[in-house]
Amino acid sequence: MRLVIIESPFAHDKNDAVARHRVWRYVRVAMRDCLMRGEAPFASHALYTQEGVLSDWDPSERALGIAAGFAWGEVAALRAFYIDIGRTSGMLKGIEEAKRLGQPYEERTIPGWEEL
Length: 116
What we know:
This protein is α/β, with parallel strands linked by helices. It contains 4 helices and 4 strands.
């Protein structure tokens, strides 16, 4: 299995439960998509922002999470950008990091993902 970093939109208003549910659901679908492709995905933004780990709303903790995700990204074979619900500033940083490393990356969509 090749190691793949998942980049997906995760930004949302912390008071918007519908948006929060949508981004969490989407990252889970993206992880499943990678697994079904025979890949071993890692989605730092879904792991590090869980309650009790790091706060995505605290700029210093957000920066720490991005740095930790980039450290894992250095060993990945690919960065997969899932774009069905848009692109965020964090995803743009991920593209810059992939370019800096000379790492392959690709954009992916999941047809009909909302019905899954």
